[in-house]
Amino acid sequence: MSDCRRFNEPIEPMTLGNMRSLGVRGLDVTCPNCHHAARLDVDDYPDHMPVPIFGPHMACIRRGIIGVDARPNWGEQPERSSLTGAQRTSR
Predict the structure, then answer these.
(1) Residue 62, Cβ neighbours under 10 Å: how many?
(2) Strands 37-41 and 26-30, how do they pair?
(3) How far apart are CA 34 and CA 2, in angstroms?
(4) What's the predicted TM-score (pTM) here?
(5) Residue 81: predicted pLDDT
(6) DSSP per residue over 27-46, as a string?
(7) Is the distance from CB of 27 to CB of 39 less than 8 angstroms?
(8) In this structure, are residues 37 and 71 in contact, taking their beta carbons and an 8 Å threshold?
(9) Torsion angle defined by CA atoms of residues 68, 73, 51 and 63, in that order, rounded to the nearest 10 degrees
(10) What is residue 25's predicted lDDT score, i.e. its pLDDT?
(11) Residue 89 burial class via C-beta count within 10 angstroms: exposed 0-12, middle 13-18, buried 19 and up
């Protein structure tokens, strides 16, 4: 039997614990209306919390609109060696 996910099985959202295991400690938060962006430190939140739970509960400080886009801040992820030997040129 294959360990591959079937196309009709739901995808589990990334948790803070999984994000932290990849070397990322914060979230990039962006307002979908005015594109104001901020970084959020989530060190005080438990590992089991899913990343997408943050967006609907936050408000843009520029416009006051509730509901933002919250994603892992991949820019924090440490460099790691490439499987192909290619170098990453930008972040």
Answers:
(1) 12
(2) antiparallel
(3) 45
(4) 0.75
(5) 75
(6) EEEE-TTT--EEEEE-TTS-
(7) yes
(8) no
(9) -10
(10) 95
(11) exposed
Q: Nearest to residue 53, comparing CAs of 5, 87, 15, 20? A: 15
- State which amino acid sits at residue 14: M
**Quick one: which of 87, 12, 74, 2 has its CA closest to 48?**
12
Tens-digit pLDDT profile for the chain (91 aa)? 456 667 788 888 999 999 999 999 999 999 999 999 999 999 999 999 999 999 999 999 998 989 999 999 999 988 877 777 666 555 5
Place of tokens 């939140």: 45
pLDDT at 7 (0 to 100): 76
Outline where 1-91 has alpha helix (H): 16-21
